[in-house]
Amino acid sequence: MASQRPNQLFRNLNAKIASIPMIVTALFVFVGGTAWTVVYSFTSSGLLPRLKWVGLDQYDRLWGTKKWFVAIENLAIYGFCMLALVFVIGFILAALIDQKIRFENTIRTVILYPYALSFVVTGLVWQWILNPEFGIEAIVRGMGWQSFEFDPLYNPEIAIFGVLIAGLWQGSGLVMVLMLAGLRGIDQDVWKAARVDGIPAWKTYLFIVIPMMRPVFITTLVLTVTGIVKLYDLIVAQTSGGPGIATEVPAKYVYDMMFGASNLGQGFAASTMMLLTVALVVIPWATLEFGGGKKHG
């Protein structure tokens, strides 16, 4: 065993040497930047960063600000609804396309196309679609239903759901593709055995196929959650956080504090809280995916 270790160390040596700049850059930019942000969240940095320690004052101010609570509440509503609906929609679309339907490539491309658009474009498109003057409401009223109302972006109580519609439109295509890849990876013998046993299709999906797609679901969950936490472009393009602060989200709060209010310390504190949110998802996922694989002897 000892004689094999040097050989393994020098295996693919050129590739390992070539990866050194990337590793150093990652450590410097990501790890260093993260540490820098956390450290300066305990300072009174204003327009410029400065090491004047104030302890947990920035966090006390953060959690005492109504705008931050609204941002957290919106993120929770958007995140919960997004996760539930995008998984259901994406899986149903994938299951339908997996039936070897005609024009599969065309349909798959059309559904995935919104994901290729930037969030800014998506936000602007759905801002127009949901505009009561020339959007869905105006079209339906033009058909004769004068009492019809559909202007979620102009109602503070439900404005975040107007943003959710745009998010689902863009994100469902990616989830569909990931789920479809998982379904195509299921052995056909599983389906044949289920048919022979007389198991209904919905039970086959629910009790056999979905448990077998666990890695796909976990990967999709991580990608979706990280996208939810850093939600910013869509909000700015679609509502700019309005009406009032009805659609504020943490990422926009960070931007407003750092570049609008010139309060870097407050922005760093909010960034750190966002980092903790992502870590609560990524660390358990990494533990489940990579921690269990080393238990074999």
From TrEMBL:
<dbReference type="InterPro" id="IPR051393">
    <property type="entry name" value="ABC_transporter_permease"/>
</dbReference>
<feature type="transmembrane region" description="Helical">
    <location>
        <begin position="267"/>
        <end position="288"/>
    </location>
</feature>
<feature type="domain" description="ABC transmembrane type-1">
    <location>
        <begin position="72"/>
        <end position="287"/>
    </location>
</feature>
<keyword id="KW-0472">Membrane</keyword>
<feature type="transmembrane region" description="Helical">
    <location>
        <begin position="158"/>
        <end position="183"/>
    </location>
</feature>
<dbReference type="GO" id="GO:0055085">
    <property type="term" value="P:transmembrane transport"/>
</dbReference>
<feature type="transmembrane region" description="Helical">
    <location>
        <begin position="204"/>
        <end position="229"/>
    </location>
</feature>
<dbReference type="InterPro" id="IPR035906">
    <property type="entry name" value="MetI-like_sf"/>
</dbReference>
<protein>
    <submittedName>
        <fullName>Lactose transport system permease protein LacF</fullName>
    </submittedName>
</protein>
<dbReference type="Pfam" id="PF00528">
    <property type="entry name" value="BPD_transp_1"/>
</dbReference>
<comment type="similarity">
    <text>Belongs to the binding-protein-dependent transport system permease family.</text>
</comment>
<keyword id="KW-0813">Transport</keyword>
<dbReference type="GO" id="GO:0005886">
    <property type="term" value="C:plasma membrane"/>
</dbReference>
<keyword id="KW-1003">Cell membrane</keyword>
<feature type="transmembrane region" description="Helical">
    <location>
        <begin position="109"/>
        <end position="129"/>
    </location>
</feature>
<keyword id="KW-1133">Transmembrane helix</keyword>
<keyword id="KW-0812">Transmembrane</keyword>
<dbReference type="InterPro" id="IPR000515">
    <property type="entry name" value="MetI-like"/>
</dbReference>
<feature type="transmembrane region" description="Helical">
    <location>
        <begin position="75"/>
        <end position="97"/>
    </location>
</feature>
<feature type="transmembrane region" description="Helical">
    <location>
        <begin position="20"/>
        <end position="42"/>
    </location>
</feature>
